[in-house]
Amino acid sequence: MEDEEELTPRLKCDVELELSGPNVPSLNKWVANALRRLADRLERDEFEDGFTDVNDGVGKKIGSIYVGFSQGNF
């Protein structure tokens, strides 16, 4: 029997956020907070394949995240 090649897990992640606010420092802080929340959710394996809405701290949609899991010989 031929040796099977080991498949390598692969993750594709795209994040698109769009916010408006009073000034650039506030926007930077809000985006950083949203990215930290997304990172925590990724570490807890809370995403399935596909698009998911991204909300700010009060539940308003500010964008989306795409997560795609696959494996193969890359």
Helix fraction by DSSP (H/I, runs of at least 4): 25-40%
Task: Give the end-to-end Cα distance, rounded to a whole number of Å.
Answer: 23 Å
Average pLDDT number: 93
Order of helices and strands: EHEE
Largest sheet: 3 strands, antiparallel
Based on CA atoms alone, the radius of gyration comes out at 17 Å
Instruction: Quickly count the helices.
Output: 1
Number of E-type strands? 3
- Strand residue content: 35-45%
Number of domains: 1
Biggest β-sheet: strands ordered side by side in the sheet: 1-3-2
Global structural class: alpha+beta
* Global shape: elongated
How would you sum up this structure, described in words?
This protein has 74 residues and is an alpha+beta fold. The chain has one domain. 27% of the residues lie in helices and 38% in strands. It is built from one helix and three strands; from the N terminus they run E-H-E-E. The longest helix has 20 residues, at 24-43.
